[in-house]
Amino acid sequence: PDRSAFAGSVATADRLVRTMIGAGVPLPEAVRMITATPAAILGLLGSKGMIAPGYDADIVIFDEDIRIHFTIIKGEIVYENR
């Protein structure tokens, strides 16, 4: 009800992006759907949801298979999988 989670979902963001790409959604649009759209719904679009001046440096680095290699939150690496 508070829109802070997908009801009953255990899907991770990388899985959701892969699913959308498999459905024919272009990668930039799939990434926008998992970043800017939730940020806008939660009222955080002024600080989260895109890479832009003044936004938090929260970034996920993934490869061509959407396997996550790094997660960076506020400029600090918090997850690394090489």
List keywords for this structure.
single chain, 82 residues, alpha+beta, 3 helices, 18% strand
Strand content: 15-25%
- pLDDT < 50 runs, ≥5 residues: none
Total DSSP helices: 3
Approximate helicity band: 25-40%
Kindly provide the radius of gyration, computed on alpha-carbon positions and rounded to a whole number of angstroms. 13 Å
Element pattern in H and E: HHHEEE
- Write down the overall geometry: globular
Distance between the termini: 37 Å
* Strands in their spatial order, largest beta sheet: 1-2-3
Largest sheet, in brief, is:
3 strands, antiparallel
Number of strands: 3
Structural class by sheet pairing and helices: alpha+beta
Rounded mean pLDDT score: 88
Quick recap:
The protein has 82 residues and is of the alpha+beta class.
What does this structure look like?
- This protein is α+β, with helices and mostly antiparallel strands.
- Helices cover 29% and strands 18% of the residues.
- It has three helices and three strands; from the N terminus they run αααβββ.
- The chain has helices at residues 13-22, 27-34, 36-41, and strands spanning 59-62, 68-73, 76-80.
- The chain has a three-stranded antiparallel beta sheet with strand order 1-2-3, with no helix packed on it.
- Helix 1 packs antiparallel against helix 2 (27-34).
- The chain starts with 12 loop residues before the first helix and ends with a strand.
